[in-house]
Amino acid sequence: MKKFIAIAVALVAFAAVSSAQPKALGLRGGYGAELSYQQYMGGSSFAELDLGMFGHSMLVSGLYDFSIYSEGGFNFYAGPGAQVGLWSVDGKSGLDAAVAGQIGFEYNFDIPLSISIDWRPAFHFIGTDGVKGFNYTGAALGVRYRF
Length: 147
Fold this sequence. Notes:
Elements: H1 2-20, E1 23-30, E2 33-42, E3 45-54, E4 57-71, E5 74-89, E6 92-108, E7 113-119, E8 122-126, E9 133-135, E10 139-146
Antiparallel strand pairs: 1-2, 1-10, 2-3, 3-4, 4-5, 5-6, 6-7, 6-8, 7-10, 8-9
């Protein structure tokens, strides 16, 4: 019973801390379009989860970005991540998996809106022959509502 109470208290504390941290939801567009969610983890660091559509392909990206420089509403960040998705090219389809990085600039306005420009290169170790290996086409513009 003591373990159950300890686990319940830990879950409630985690939920309270998570809900107290700022979040952002919006769109990220460049080569394709992505629905983007950011969860700030304290300071200027944040976790980002994106669901993207690229032609006949779908990709989920998860990244953890660290603030390199932050002043006022301006934030310069970079961090590692991973991607997994499904692709379809010329009647063939399959799985895509990659390790990725992200580097970018973000500006948070006084209203609950932020814009960002970032670059997300990736190394695809599973994918089509044309995508397998290093891919650097991940530049995008993001617009997010902060809450």
